TrEMBL record:
The keyword Endoplasmic reticulum applies. Coiled coil: none annotated. This is GDP-fucose protein O-fucosyltransferase 2. Signal peptide: none annotated. Pathway: Protein modification; protein glycosylation. The keyword Transferase applies. Belongs to the glycosyltransferase 68 family. GO terms for molecular function: peptide-O-fucosyltransferase activity. Keywords: Carbohydrate metabolism, Endoplasmic reticulum, Fucose metabolism, Transferase.
Amino acid sequence: MVKEKSVIRFQSFNFKRIFLLALAVYIIWSIKLNLSNDETLLLEKISLNKLDEAEPIDHYENVNIKYCGEKICRFMFPYFIPEQETRANLHLRSLTYLARSLNRIMVLPNVGNSRMNCCAPFPFEFYYDLKGMKEMFPNITFMTQQTFQKWTKELLIKPDTLHTWFIEDGRNDSYSIRDHERMSIEKSERYKSNALRELCINQFNLNISNYTEFHTGIKGVGSNNFQYNMAKFIAENLQNVESPVILIRNRSRKQMFPKIMKPIPFAPHIIKQATELKNKLQPYYCIHWRMEQAIPTELPECARKLIKTIDYLKKTEGINSVYLATDYPISGSKSASQTFYKVEKYHHEAMLILNSTINFNTWVSLNAFEEFRKDKKYDSEFSSSGIHGILDKITCIQADYFLSGPRNCCRLQSSFTSLIGQERRDLITNGNKRIRNVITRWGTMERID
């Protein structure tokens, strides 16, 4: 009996030992398994984090390759160009000097109402031939504002941006408080959200981290080498900028870069329309009458002098068709110039005298750009200055005989008239026998060759 009890206690003891040993093994295995799972989860988390970090980099490079053909994009965007089309054309093409110096893609702003800026309603190609511009500047890459905007929208992180402001010192305007005696560079004030909205910069996803001003200085602006010195000064200060985007707000009417005389070529639909007008009118006189800076009281007499000149030329030249290019508001209440604010009774009287005597043609009477004018989105373009001003310019260049106004009747020194004269001079030099003069001033019959 004692022996049986001893066996039972021994068996019970062995069972407990086995149970405890098994329990210990299970606990150790569980701890190891949990540690292994935690380690696996940690490794997975680290791998995901690395993917998260890599994904924006890969995306950034892929977007850049898509739009720029390289992993890193470098843009120069002159989003505001001063003055009306003829001078704006000159400012923009001169800025190609800077784009080439900085080796940056040049973004081309929108156009409308004879202006160039990112607020304008129509793409660059509404006025200009982008293909022709690329051929004109084969060493520069161009991108339209619309494509640049898409690039900014596709990036996950807003690209760092430098905002520059070109200021002409010595002008009597609101910026005179910051006039400098000599060309200089300084930090500019940061633009608040309302300013970014008014300048239409907020339509692009940009992180503008730096604002800089470039000043022409008052002294030395009129010197012969000013444009070269100013261009060199700006290029040297922007050469090492690492920001992918450089914005340019150009408020300087003074030429800041070396002049490129050949204009940016106009859009094919404008050239086509000008050719159609020429074929309808030939042979014809083109009269450019910019009334804006005339002496108003002299205008009726100016009209009478013009009539006498046309009558004389009809006898001597044998040309009867007349085309009138003018800033007088022939298509509505606004003049065809954004700087011609005050149209007075003398302007109206002069036009009545002319209209009652000469059967002249205009872009309105010839129904130019009929398809555009039927579309309401172009209403503002044709109610003031706009694409028809370019058409007037080309029509005058192609005219058999070109007339411009004498002193007191118009602005004598005009970029518009000067360009027409230069283009006509080139046509004559190149053997065009149809062009009979460069510029003749009516009334005085002064010829400018």
